[in-house]
Amino acid sequence: MQEYTIIFIGKSGAGKGTQIKSLLEYLSSKNESSVACLEAGQTLRDFISSDTYTSRLAQSNNTKGRLQPAFLAIWAWVDKMVHSFSGQKILCVDGAPRKLNEAYILDEMFDFYNRHNRIIVHINVNDEWAKDRLKDRARNDDTDIESVDSRLEWFNENSKGILSFFEESGKYKIFTIHGEQTIEQVHTDIINALQI
User: Fold this and answer.
1) How far apart are CA 181 and CA 104, in angstroms?
2) 186, 177 Cβ separation under 8 angstroms
3) pLDDT, averaged across the chain
């Protein structure tokens, strides 16, 4: 199998993590073992739950429903790449970028690692669908309605610029997947789009 870098973009609750898990299972069934997954959101959540001065400030941001600063989000995924990535053929990215300035850094990182087949999977859902999924997920950061509303607002404000940047760069194929379907149908649509 050739090399792919697959960036999953979508609102909180769109099912990015679920679809990455399904994709990894699919690749495993095809005996593809050279796979890495960069879960920026989980890395940042793990850090925030630790007990350092910086993590406590980040916890305060979460409590107030504020977006974590770009430097902290970038550190989370860059640190993971630097210490864990070993040139796997398939690289899946979840939780990055959240802002346009993060997209520039992510793009530069892919250039550094000579990642050529770059694909954006945009799982598109409306806000109400996302909120319903977040209620079902019942993760700690999904229980505060104002925090959820803020995260959806951030995504709506920033996603168009991010997707435009990736499209205009000419380095990425972008597939928009209708996310308001069964998990299995979304997975099928992703596999059909990727053709891997």
Assistant:
1) 31
2) yes
3) 92
Percentages of the chain per state (helix, strand, coil), in multiples of 5: 60, 15, 25
Tokens representing 22 are 């399904």
The reported pTM is 0.91
Main-chain dihedrals φ then ψ at residue 68, nearest 5 degrees: -65, 145
Domains of the chain, each with CATH number or no CATH: 4-194 (3.40.50.300)
**C-alpha dihedral over 51, 147, 158, 39, to 10 degrees?**
40
Over residues 14-25, the pLDDT tens digits come to 999 999 999 999
The two tokens of residue 163 are 């997707």
What average pLDDT score do residues 84-89 get? Answer: 95
Q: In this structure, what token pair is assigned to residue 127?
A: 């806000």
Max CA distance (Å), the chain: 46
Of 59, 12, 25, nearest in space to 190 by CA = 25
Residue in the structure block whose two tokens are 């690692």: 113
pLDDT digits (tens, 9 = 90+) for 134-169: 988 866 666 677 878 888 998 999 999 999 999 999
